[in-house]
Every structure is written in C-alpha cells, then in structure tokens.
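Two proteins were folded this term; both appear here.
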Amino acid sequence: MARSPHPSHFRLAEQIIEIVRKGRFEAGHRLREQALGDLLQVSRTPVRAALKLLAEHGIVEARRHQGFVLAAGPERLSRFNLDMPSTADQDLYRVIVEDRLGDRLPASFTQADIGRRYGVDRPLLQRTLSRLVEDGLLERNAGRGWTFLPALDNRLTLQSSYDFRRIVEPQGLLLPSFRADPAALERLRLDHLYLEAHPRIASVGAGQIFATDQHFHETIAGFSGNAFVLQAVQQQNRLRRLLEFGGYANRRRVRDWCREHLAIIDALAHDDRDRAAELMARHLSHAHAAAPNFASAKDGDRAEG
C-alpha cells in the first residue's frame, strides 16, 4: 500500500507552484531539484517528493534523463488548488477547541479524562496538547492536569472586550504621540497581501493567521507612543486566542479582515489618521459581528468568524 504524502510535501508543492506563477514559467520549463531546494532552504529529497505530488495532479511531468518539467500552462496554474488532507492531529485540535468554546469541555481536565473522551492514542493526544500549549491556548498544571488559559468564551466577556477595544484602538491612532513607522507599515502590508491573495488560504495554519492579526493590532498600538495602549491591546490578544483559533474554519472572513487591515495601513501610509481611526472602529464592529454565537455553539452550531 502506497504511503500518503507527508503534510510538509503539500506545503512545499504549494511553494513550488507560487515560484512557478511568479516566474511566469511556460510549459516545458525544467524544474531543477537543487535550485528549488536552495530557494526553499530544504534538501533535494523533500523537493523531489513535492514534485512527484504535483506530477500526480498533472502539473509537472517526470521525464527520463531530464527530471521534472512543467506540464501545465498559465491558465491551468491560475485555477489549480492543491487540497491538503487534514491530519488526525489537526482534526483532534479542531474538535478540542470547538468543544471548549461550546462549553462541552471543562476549563481543566486530566490527560486520562480527555483520552477517554476522544478515544485517541497517547502519542496523538500528547502532540495535540503540546500544540495547544505552543499556541497559547492551554497550560500544564503543577500536577497531571491541563487548564485552558483565560479566554473570551461567553457572550458577556466578548461584548465587553469589543466595547473596550472600540474605545482604545481607534483613539490610540489619534493621540498626539502617534508616530507610524513607514518600514513597519510596509512589512504589515506585505504580510497581509500574502494572506489575502493566497490561492489556498485553508492550508495556512491557524497560528500563522493569528500571528498576522495579532502583529497588526499590536504594531498599530505601538505607534501610539503610549505604553498603556499597547499593554491593553496585548492583553486582549491573549484573551481572544481561543476564540480566533476556533473561528478560522471559515477562511472567507480571514480575507475580509485582511482587506480591512490593508485599508487602515493605506490610510496611515497617507498620514490620514482620522480615516484610519474610522476604519479601525468599523473593522472592530465587523469582527464582533462575525464572532461565534456562544448560545448556538453549545448545540454544535458555530457562526462565521
């Protein structure tokens, strides 16, 4: 029985597709493993595996004595999406987050309790719990248990959080001490353009998506020149991690907030802080409206987020 491709091979294949698109390579162009490996900073072996995966989809062709050559033309490449199958780790991660948001999982639990609940083996469970810790959603107790970090996990705290942010973040843009860094703004713009234009947004990890969102709000708050504004935004980001990770199943909203962030970045690049503050307030209202409906989440139904 043939082994399924490793998730990293799907990611490499998508990166190769991006190289081909940006390079505007024509069908018949030779894709050299060593050159791709140097560009992607990996060895030839995973590059070869990624190219074989693309060959299975007819994007490249393996030719004797030539290696791999591009088989698809620009039109096919523009429409091609590589569907990366979810792994058992990703499925368990998603279920745990959704169960916690739906109040089906207590704030604290033991590994034995959660292992019995989901009927998974110990290595899979440990990997998933470790990822939840790395993503800042969970912490290990002094004993054997685990505890979710404080989060916005009910309607009242969610409402209060967005009310607070609508007071702080737009006003931070209007402070006399506000100074935007053009280089930092450009880096933010490029990060958002990457996500907004990504051909397979569903393949981008929730951690990377949250980091982009978090970095945007904290960078803008940092421009305020007021340490208390920055600390307030950082604290809100810590509280909303669970909520955001649970809401990334619908990636359409990710593209929407990328465009909203880009509009704020453009306003600041033109030194129009009044416009940027107006757009920030509107963005936060949209984000609140798209947040999970906790009443229905308990019945297993999630709102778009």
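Next, the second protein.
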Amino acid sequence: MSEQEQNQIFGAWLNQYKALMFKVVRAYATTPMDQDDLFQEISIQVWRSIPAFKQQSATTTWIYRIAFNTALKWGSRERKHAQAHETLDNVQAILQATPLPGDERLTWLYEAIQQLDDIDRSITLLLLDGFSYKEMATITGISESHIGVKINRIKKQLITKSKQQDYHGI
C-alpha cells in the first residue's frame, strides 16, 4: 500500500469516524489539552493500522478497538505522570475562559463514565453507540454473556449515582 493510498483511507476514516473517536477521547481524558493529546494519539494509531486492516471486521469495530486500546495505554501513561499534569491543569483552568453552558445531564454522564474502570467505560461507550453484545465481545475480548452481566451492573451503578444527583431522566 502506498503512502498516498494510506493517507486517502485515513482522510476518509477520519471524516467518517471522528465523532466515534472523540467519544472514546471524552470518556478517557478530562481536560481539553488531554483530549487533544489523546485524539492525536488515537489518530496516529489509526493511520499506522491501515495497512494491517484486512476487512475481516467492520471498520467501526476496527477503529473502536484501536481507540480503546490507545486510550487504555494513554491513561496508564498519564496516571504515572499525574502529579506533573495536576500543576499544569490548575494553571490551564485559570487561564481558560469559562466554557459555554452545555447539557448538564450529558456532562454528568461523561463524568460518571470517567469514574468507571477501563473495561466498564469501554462497554458503556459501545452500548451508547448501539453495538451488539457480539461486537462488544469482539472489541473488548470479553465473552458475550459476561458483557451482559457487566452491562446490568453498570446500569445499576449509573442509576444509583443518578438518583443521588437527581438525574432520573438519564
């Protein structure tokens, strides 16, 4: 595969699946700076993976898998450097303008998702995007039946948190 072909595929994938990639980014990175870094890292990994894509799965499944694996590795690296980032995040928060108000429920949901462990976070995002249990199992490497058990537990956990926050409509 030529670099030009790889770039064309990447451009098409980025155009079509950017929102999917950003959902993963938003679930794993909290600050705008971290979100930019993670999005860039995922984009690089997607670009690098293009020659290995054999079309044995859906493109969305392939990109999700790359995004989740990259986010997990990135999160692990970031936790190791958390103290250094904390100082920078505090400075950045002071320097940034106050963001425009968004949907409070959506903000709460992403914050709640960020508090889940890595696998539960991945499953939650896949569920929100309408993936089947079989597709979730393929992406995460967990059996379909275990996916179902985890989804029930995640739902109960989020419902409990939403009742504490009075977000019954989530």
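The mean pLDDT is 82. The helical segments are 3-28, 32-49, 59-80, 82-95, 104-114, 118-128, 133-140, 144-165. These notes refer to the second protein only.
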